[in-house]
Design a protein that fits this description.
Elements lengths: L7 H12 L3 E5 L6 H14 L3 E6 L15 H5 L10 H14 L12 E6 L6 H14 L2 E6 L6 H6 L5 E5 L5 H12 L5 H11 L3 H18 L16 H8 L5 H13 L2 E2 H7 L2 H9 L3 E6 L2 E6 L2 H8 L5 H13 L23 H28 L3 H13 L4 H14 L8 H14 L4 H9 L7 H18 L26 H21 L3 H10 L10 H13 L2 H17 L3 H17 L3 H14 L7 H18 L2 H14 L12 H10 L4 H17 L3 H12 L5 H10 L7 H14 L2 H13 L3 H17 L4 H17 L18 H11 L4 H8 L3 H15 L4 H7 L1
Parallel strand pairs: 1-4, 1-5, 2-3, 3-4
Antiparallel strand pairs: 6-8, 7-8
Helix pairs in contact: 1-2, 4-5, 7-8, 7-9, 7-29, 8-9, 8-16, 11-13, 11-14, 11-15, 16-17, 16-27, 17-18, 17-19, 18-19, 19-20, 19-21, 20-21, 21-22, 22-23, 22-24, 23-24, 24-25, 24-26, 25-26, 26-27, 26-28, 28-29, 28-30, 29-30, 30-31, 30-32, 31-32, 32-33, 32-34, 33-34, 34-35, 35-36, 36-37, 38-40, ...
Length: 877
């Protein structure tokens, strides 16, 4: 489906439910994609041989759908003539719909009638009664849509049959939103911008389209042909059209309640009760315009979708808005609402990871950043310690402060530090250096800043400078490395610990040094040693930064305990979301994404990436995790054939251009090669530069980066010499992951099916399901080149069984194994009968349909599977 709509798998779920004999009601707000899903399901059902009758409710929504024009929906659908309200008109309408449904006397084996009703909640009572009668007569199934609360007599009549269910419209996956917005704007859209759009729309397709088109129009008004910038993605008056649809059917008290809740933002239920009558809250909740989310043990009430809040806040200066402001002021007079950070909970908070909750949380993070900046500035003004200084600088960065503001703040902070804190001034300079390198992309300037500390008498200051310099070499590469004509630059050696530092004053410096040493050890492929160092670098809960925690989980993952590392990172991510710790969300989220990716859990990975990008909460000073998320997003998009999204994410990844030696899957080279191959480039030529990059990483001793990139490249083109060199490099690696990947690289370089099958079993035993599937598929390909041998057939069957057992859309890795995924349910049924050897006439008799219908199905099956004979159907299925 090319339209912006929930995934085709959702349409397939709807069709499977209908085929089982159950009617379906789709419930979603205006803009959720209800009508598009209905159209897609209707087209698929028509292809499958259903008799389809369609109509649409046309009421105003103010009277429960009853309307004042009986049979209006049937007249507009062409199923009867003008209504008169008499029994004769009802009889005529009944006859018209019955005829459209194929007659009243259908055999039990052929009851494949589908009545599709869009906006069923707006259907007039007379039309609903006629349709319900026809459904009862013909045994038809109903596929209807309605907006919340999806109640009323018309909906009840339509679904009065023995079997019916309700399906809520799902949010749009981020990659599909990204692709469609790119197509609307006819230009690449970076993931941060797409994340902002997702956060506004809550993943609702219609809202996404409206916001994107308004941004396009706003940019064209300013300068025709101009690509929309950040300023165009904010509110415009055109949003009123979309918002009015969301508010249809609400009375004045409910609209006033919306204005109040928009003004206060996500608020505890106790505060909401003081501001808005609870009956109004219930009405808004019934209409799908509220979400209840748990935060630090209390339930918050938030408007949904977030663009609703944004739009209503822009109306704050009208008469109703001024009245709302007065009400809030009077209600909270004498009591201050909390602006500071919340306490860290003892248990994992309950912010849902759903895209809807992520969109709400993204808005809350923005509000929190502004409030936290005020608190951090006040604390720093009163007590300018290194702790308060770093927190203040972090708050400025999280609030998107201008460069000159941050530069001025750094200068003032260094001058105001207490004399007793001199030994820690290195932390402020280090912060500034990392900021210049990662945010301003001024790596040389960052090194120059650190050089100012080299002559300091305090060993703590020098140790801090050395550690940060080492960190920048690992993340960005070293611009001061020797020229190619000189000796190759080795990977930087692990830093020595600072000597003779008392525990009380030296702990932050020691923790920083151990953190960087852990990064070095990870880069060298020694995750077990890295884990020991990183655990020693974890700071207490009250510390301003906790960079080591996500790297501890990464070390556990690379040591071989993928499941434990993923679960631990999920818990840390939940805590970061619950405490609104903006800078910790993406680092933990990256480890979760990496674990899901290597385990082949692609469905969960898609949902996870959607939630993270919807949050729009990057960690600016920890860019390797953002690079890793972009890289995994590119890989997933390529597996899905979503080239537009892959291209946009890759463009941002290439802009970052990080070495990221201690981060798997964070460099653009192998992903660029994969995109080029996907768009038709010669694999050998497309991968040449990326293999050169891998060779350079090997020379630097960056084992982790080289091996993980090389493993991606062998799935595109095998450079035997370099793949073998990578395999040799893993012989001294620690843990289970890198050695297993090394054995796969060696087997790929040897090109022997037996070796690849052994490698596949090895990878699968260590939880590396995605790589195991690739290795197994490569072995099957090599066996198949020898001809249709029993061995090739057996291994193909084993691979198919493994993929089906794993689920999670692992078939995306080997699309040739799952041709049935491209077929509709009816086409698959026909294909299986053809594979049994039945003729088209025999298939038609079996399914009680016409031979012409079967002919059409067989034609589409051949076209979708790319085959020319009936024998090939059996071979594929």
């Amino acid at each position: 489906m090319n339209a912006l709509t929930p995934r085709p798998t959702f349409v397939r779920t709807v069709l499977q439910t209908l085929a089982s004999g159950t009617s379906v009601l789709l419930v979603g707000l205006p803009g959720s994609g209800r009508s598009t899903v209905l159209a897609g399901a209707q087209a698929e059902a028509d292809d499958d041989g259903w008799t389809v009758v369609t109509l649409r409710g046309t009421g105003t929504g103010d009277s429960g759908g009853a309307g004042e024009r009986p049979l209006e929906a049937l007249v507009l659908a062409g199923l009867t003539t003008g209504p008169t309200g008499t029994l004769g008109a009802l009889a005529a309408a009944l006859e018209g719909v019955t005829v459209a449904a194929g007659g009243a006397r259908r055999s039990s084996a052929d009851r494949r009638v589908l009545v599709v009703v869009d906006d069923a909640d707006l259907l007039d009572d007379a039309s609903a009664s006629v349709v319900a009668t026809v459904v009862a007569r013909t045994g038809a199934r109903v596929l209807a849509s309605a907006r919340p609360p999806a109640s009323g007599a018309s909906v009840a009549r339509l679904l009065a049959g023995p079997d019916s269910t309700v399906l809520n419209m799902p949010a749009l996956p981020f990659d599909e939103l990204h692709r469609t917005v790119t197509e609307i704007l006819r230009a690449d859209v970076d993931p941060d911008t797409a994340g902002r759009l997702y956060a506004l729309s809550g993943g609702m397709p219609g809202l996404t389209r409206a916001i994107a088109r308004e941004a396009r129009r706003s940019a064209d008004l300013a300068e025709p042909g101009r690509h929309p910038g950040a300023e165009h993605w904010s509110w415009t008056p055109g949003w009123a059209v979309v918002v009015d649809r969301l508010l249809a059917g609400l009375d004045d008290s409910a609209r006033d309640g919306l204005r109040t809740l928009a003004a206060v933002g996500p608020a505890p239920t106790a505060e909401v009760r003081r501001l808005v009558p609870w009956s109004v809250v219930e009405t808004l909740d019934d209409h799908g315009l509220l979400r209840m989310v748990e935060d630090d043990g209390e339930v918050l009430v938030a408007l949904f979708p977030p663009m609703l809040t944004e739009h209503l806040l822009h109306l704050a200066q009208d008469a109703r808005g001024l009245r709302v402001a007065e009400t809030i002021s009077e209600t909270f007079a004498g009591s201050a609402r909390e602006l500071g950070s919340r306490r860290r909970p003892r248990t994992t908070p309950s912010w849902s990871s759903s895209p809807e909750s992520a969109a709400i949380l993204g808005r809350r993070l923005e509000d929190r950043a502004s409030a936290h900046l005020l608190v951090a500035h006040d604390t720093w003004e009163r007590d300018p310690t290194v702790h308060s200084t770093v927190l203040y600088l972090d708050a400025l960065l999280a609030s998107h402060a201008e460069v000159d503001v941050i530069e001025d703040a750094v200068g003032v902070a260094l001058r105001r530090l207490r004399p007793a804190a001199h030994e820690h001034r290195g932390f402020v300079v280090a912060w500034h250096a990392v900021y210049r390198a990662h945010v301003l992309h001024d790596v040389s300037g960052a090194y120059a800043r650190l050089a100012e500390l080299d002559a300091d008498d305090d060993p703590r200051v020098r140790a801090t400078s050395d550690a940060v310099r080492q960190h920048l070499r690992l993340t960005t590469g070293d611009p001061q490395a020797p020229a190619p004509a000189e000796a190759t630059a080795p990977a930087p050696a692990p830093l020595p610990p600072p000597a003779d530092l008392p525990d009380d004053t030296g702990r932050p410096t020691n923790a920083l040094v151990r953190l960087v040493r852990g990064e070095v050890l990870l880069a060298r492929g020694l995750p077990v040693d890295a884990h020991a160092e990183l655990v020693g670098g974890v700071l207490p809960a009250h510390a301003p930064r906790h960079d080591a925690i996500s790297l501890v989980d990464q070390a556990v993952l690379l040591s071989g305990d993928i499941d434990t590392a993923t679960r631990s990172a999920m818990r840390s991510l939940g805590e970061a979301r619950g405490t609104l710790a903006q800078g910790e969300i993406e680092p933990h989220g990256y480890v979760v994404a990496l674990g899901l990716y290597v385990a082949g859990r692609l469905t969960t990975l898609r949902e996870h990436l959607t939630s993270l990008f919807a949050l729009g909460s990057p960690a600016p000073l920890r860019t390797t995790t953002r690079a890793g998320l972009l890289s995994l997003s590119v890989s997933l998009a390529l597996l899905e054939g979503n080239l537009a999204s892959a291209r946009s994410s890759l463009a941002r990844l290439e802009e970052m251009d990080l070495a990221a030696m201690f981060t798997p899957a964070a460099r653009p080279g192998s992903r660029r090669a994969a995109l080029d191959v996907a768009t038709g480039a010669d694999p050998r030529q497309a991968t040449r530069e990326a293999w050169d990059d891998v060779a350079a990483l090997v020379e630097r001793g960056a084992v982790l980066a080289a091996v993980t990139d090389g493993t991606t490249l062998v799935d595109l083109w095998v450079d035997e010499e370099r793949a073998t060199a990578l395999a040799d490099l893993t012989l001294t690696s620690q843990g289970a992951v890198l050695p297993a990947l090394g054995r796969y690289l060696r087997a790929a370089a040897d090109g022997a099916p037996d070796g690849l099958l052994v490698a596949a079993a090895d990878l699968r035993s260590h939880g590396l399901v995605l790589h195991a599937t690739s290795a197994h598929a490569r072995a099957v390909t090599l066996l198949s080149r020898e001809g249709p041998t029993a061995r090739a057939t057996e291994e193909r069957a084993r691979l198919r069984a493994a993929v089906e057992q794993a689920g999670e859309e692992l078939s995306l890795v080997v699309p040739s194994l799952a041709p049935a995924l491209s077929l509709t349910g009816r086409e698959l049924e026909v294909a299986r009968l053809v594979a049994e050897g039945l003729s088209n006439r025999e298939v038609a008799d079996r399914l009680v349909v016409s031979e012409r219908t079967v002919d059409n199905h067989v034609y589409r099956i051949f076209r979708k599977l790319g085959i020319r004979s009936r024998n090939e159907v059996a071979a594929l299925l």
